[in-house]
């Protein structure tokens, strides 16, 4: 019995099946679920929820915390000063599943593969194709490892006053533009009607199992790097969005679905704005005037005890500050302090944990004012 679907393409999703329709539906053919435990059994456990993993680079901060699983499966990458240009960089957040190997492999290789294919790209179509080639090359390289895990990805390449954002799966990029949240990516999930149709056209199927629509009843995302057992249906071809940096683009949030499952896009933007709001006009600038001679990578980690979540209305906090002092128009002009940017990352992570997120959570915030040409 076919389930009804909403027709709002491409964001339409499958409706939950009723109890009656679930009982009548014919069972799908039995498939073998791969054993991924061999991949991770020899690895040491990651620090549990009592510690953050934090790192930073010019104009960017990231915080992450492990979820309920024994191993941290999220990873990230920050590569600043591409080709010696301090106003360029590559940033990625990677959410692994079925083990941590895929996310780690992507963090080590995706940026190099993308930069290798971006040489001599001039127009948007060639850049989009270069991103696609870089993702597919990374996927093929990982499949050759013979491992079964997979990874969702969201990346941002900032170079030449352009920002190229790409994604696979349910990692998401959200831009703050004039104080308003703008999602730059659309999650690739099995519940999306266009993704379900693509999978079925290739002979696969989508089944509702354990509270979510899943490819062959296993994987809730419909695109990823890795997942060799589902590769015929789970693609590694990203969606790419190319934007020219403008003065009203304030910051970009890249995060794994451990955040987005419990925090709305606009709420995340409001929290960052409140945390990074300058206390006065003469406050310190973040990474102002930095000089770079070569590419720099920032994989550093620090274990920091989580701060207690301050249960206040952040929207009210923003309103109170902007009404009580003439700061509002300076928010876009003055970059946040280092402490403000790092604090915003941890604020978002803490909020997700307090709302019951059991997944690994990684939040990266990029201050776009550090990458725009000065007017």
UniProtKB/TrEMBL annotation:
Which of the seven top EC classes does this enzyme belong to?
Answer: hydrolase
State which residue ranges cross the membrane. Answer: none
| GO terms for MF | metal ion binding; protein serine/threonine phosphatase activity
Q: Which SMART domains does the record match to this protein?
A: PP2Cc
Coiled-coil segments, which residues?
Answer: none
Q: Which family does it belong to?
A: Belongs to the PP2C family.
Q: What is this protein called?
A: protein-serine/threonine phosphatase
Species: Linum tenue
Taxonomy of the source species = Eukaryota, Viridiplantae, Streptophyta, Embryophyta, Tracheophyta
């Amino acid at each position: 019995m076919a389930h009804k679907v909403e027709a709002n393409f491409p964001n339409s999703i499958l409706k939950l099946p009723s109890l009656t329709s679930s009982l009548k539906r014919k069972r799908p053919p039995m498939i073998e679920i791969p054993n991924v435990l061999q991949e991770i059994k020899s690895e040491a456990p990651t620090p549990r929820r009592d510690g953050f993993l934090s790192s930073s680079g010019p104009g960017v901060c990231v915080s992450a915390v492990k979820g309920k699983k024994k191993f941290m499966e999220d990873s990230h990458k920050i590569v600043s000063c591409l080709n010696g240009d301090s106003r360029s960089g590559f940033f990625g957040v990677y959410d692994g599943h079925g083990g941590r190997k895929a996310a780690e492999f992507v963090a080590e290789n995706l940026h190099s593969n993308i930069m290798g294919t971006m040489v001599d790209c001039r127009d948007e179509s060639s850049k989009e194709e270069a991103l696609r080639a870089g993702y597919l090359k990374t996927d093929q390289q990982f499949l050759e490892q013979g491992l079964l895990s997979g990874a969702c990805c969201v990346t941002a390449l900032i170079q030449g006053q352009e920002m190229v954002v790409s994604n696979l799966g349910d990692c998401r990029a959200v831009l703050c533009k004039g104080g308003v949240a703008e999602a730059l990516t659309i999650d690739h999930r099995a519940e999306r009607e266009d993704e379900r149709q693509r999978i079925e056209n290739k002979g696969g199927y989508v089944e509702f199992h354990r509270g979510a629509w899943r490819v062959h009843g296993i994987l809730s995302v419909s695109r990823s790097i890795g997942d060799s057992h589902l590769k015929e249906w789970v693609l590694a071809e990203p969606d790419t969005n190319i934007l020219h940096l403008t003065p009203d683009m304030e910051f970009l949030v890249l995060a794994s679905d451990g955040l987005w499952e419990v925090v709305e896009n606009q709420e995340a933007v409001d929290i960052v704005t409140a945390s990074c709001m300058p206390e006065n006009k003469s406050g310190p600038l973040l990474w102002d005037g930095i000089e770079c001679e070569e590419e720099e990578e920032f994989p550093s980690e620090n274990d920091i005890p989580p701060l207690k979540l301050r249960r206040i209305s952040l929207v009210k906090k923003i309103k109170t500050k902007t009404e009580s002092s003439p700061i509002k128009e300076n928010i876009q002009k003055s970059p946040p302090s280092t402490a403000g940017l790092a604090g915003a990352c941890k604020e978002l992570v803490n909020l997700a944990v307090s709302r019951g997120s059991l997944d690994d959570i990684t939040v990266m915030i990029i201050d776009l004012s550090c990458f725009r040409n000065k007017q």
